[in-house]
Design a protein that fits this description.
Elements: E1 5-8, H1 14-25, H2 32-40, E2 43-46, E3 49-52, E4 55-59, E5 62-70, E6 93-101, H3 110-124, E7 129-135, H4 142-149, E8 153-159, H5 163-167, E9 182-189
Parallel strand pairs: 6-7
Antiparallel strand pairs: 1-4, 2-3, 4-5, 5-6, 7-9, 8-9
Protein name: GNAT family N-acetyltransferase
InterPro entries: Acyl_CoA_acyltransferase, GNAT_dom
Keywords: Transferase
């Protein structure tokens, strides 16, 4: 097999990322507007250097995975977040928005490598930890299991986290336009 190429997510990747995101997560998960907003939330300047926390993975010219991460202090802490339980200041936490790997390429370490790259970039931006909401209804709860293997700790569970998005056009692959899937709020502390 060829080598997987990892690089920061740029505008040139948007159409492929939208296609893969909607294929894996359900129609309406990603749009042109969302990908532009989400990508910009991961970029900040540190010591005159632009640091991007979102990455893509290509194999033989085909997008096989991506991770979107928001920079610390550049994402909304909403009712689905439990900052009192994080053990680090909220302003020091980045947000792992999504990790997506084409089902034909899972088990090759692509998701783990994308996470490692995002963590290194977030640390350059000054983050001390990363928060995420994992899809507990993923097949065999694979999302939570994967994140746990990567060092994450469970903070809280939130039923109906994605319900509002489903009412605004996100078609959950399990629930349709009335998503009731549960989110596991998890944190990874950076060494």
């Amino acid at each position: 097999m060829s080598e997987v190429i990892y690089q920061p997510l740029t505008v040139e990747d948007f159409s492929a990322v939208i296609k893969l995101g909607n294929q894996v997560h359900g129609d309406g998960y990603l749009t042109d507007e969302k990908i532009r907003q989400w990508t910009s939330k991961g970029i900040s300047s540190q010591n005159g250097e632009e640091v991007n926390t979102s990455f893509v993975a290509y194999l033989d010219g085909q997008l096989v995975g991506f991770r979107i991460t928001f920079a610390a202090n550049n994402w909304p802490i909403d009712k689905w977040c439990s900052p009192a339980l994080w053990q680090v200041p909220a302003a020091s936490c980045c947000y792992f928005k999504c990790n997506t790997v084409d089902e034909n390429y899972r088990g090759l370490g692509i998701g783990k490598k994308l996470l490692q790259l995002a963590i290194e970039a977030a640390k350059k931006q000054g983050a001390k930890a990363g928060i995420s909401h994992l899809w507990k209804q993923s097949p065999n709860n694979s999302a939570v299991n994967y994140f746990t293997r990567c060092g994450a700790q469970h903070v809280a569970s939130h039923a109906g986290k994605w319900n509002e998005e489903s009412k605004q056009g996100y078609n959950c692959i399990l629930c349709g336009f009335d998503c009731q899937c549960e989110a596991a709020e998890m944190i990874i502390y950076f060494a």
